[in-house]
Amino acid sequence: MHFSNKSAGSTQNSSNSCPEGDYNTVLKYLLLPISFSLLFLFGLSLNAFTLFFIKFRTKHWTPFTIYMLNLTVCDTLFVLMLPVAIYHQVKDWPFGEPLCKITFFVVNANHYGSILFLSVISLHRFIGICYPVRSLSWNSTRRAKLVSVGVWACVLSSQAPILYFSGTEKYGKDILCIEDGGLLDDFLVYSSVISVVMFVLPFMVVMVCYSLMLRKLLEPSWGSGEGQQGLRAAHRTKQKALKMIIIVLMTFMFCFLPFHISKSLYFQVISLYFNHREQMTCEQLDASYIAYQVTCLMLTANSVMDPILYFMAGQDFSAHLSQVAKLAWPGQTGHTHTGRFEHGRTTIIIFVVITNPKLSDFLVYSSVISVVMFVLPFT
User: Fold this and answer.
1) H or E stretch including 331?
2) Does the pLDDT at position 111 exceed 90?
3) Where are the domains of the chain?
């Protein structure tokens, strides 16, 4: 993720540098700060909401719950770094090189942690649907904890080189925090390897798992022969599985895939610009920079989409929302609201916020704080 408010073409070899165009002014002072601020507000709220439900409203912990907890921690830590990115979009880097390295390390570690935990969740659901008997012994909470520890170990060790590459660089009077730290060729090799191992391979695993899951779910005999109650349970399982497939695939296709493609192209363009100046123009460099910044926003949207996975595919979320509805309408019976939760969960959350004065006041307060903290300093 690129924090600097200048493209790499304007930060190295000032004699060869490209002039900044009007595009940079619009991105730097308007589009990116506002977009990142909105994603920060929604991402932090949704992930805090998810953490609350997992921690305080989950009675029976399953492997899915454990994986979702780790995924939510990744998203929360990622979102908490957004204020730093917002600030550096419009200002020089004032926090020193150590914090620059830590920021890139935390952002990259939690980005790839999200990818791996989504892959683990997909593999977990695949085993449960395609190999239900084996899943009884494989999908235990103890095994889920061990898998989670392994994922974190893999992520932290693979992202440790970021602490070496990233750093601050002086450009005229400006101090920038950049990911490659001036070691562009070496960083390009490292970034390519990480993209293949930490994104391409997990994406292939997810696609294979979901292809086999869909084939299994579409079999006419799946879920039959278990009586009326068994058919209803199989129908609910199929619905949850299909929702999860849609959400995870949307996350990979909309958030992760464009980002990795544009990042790879961006650093390739930079490498060509400095190593083969005659083959690259400033316009091409600017276009790659804009694409990279836009896909950084799409990547950040992942922190908003992941909580939806828990809301839609979680086991007990409908019951929890019914309890929230009773708090919002204390004088009403719970039957009507429970039915509406089943058919329109997103709508009911909005109604709860609007009709409950305390929740409405909190939302207004959060919005005002966000404006004061993240918009006013940049005007």
Assistant:
1) none
2) yes
3) 8-315
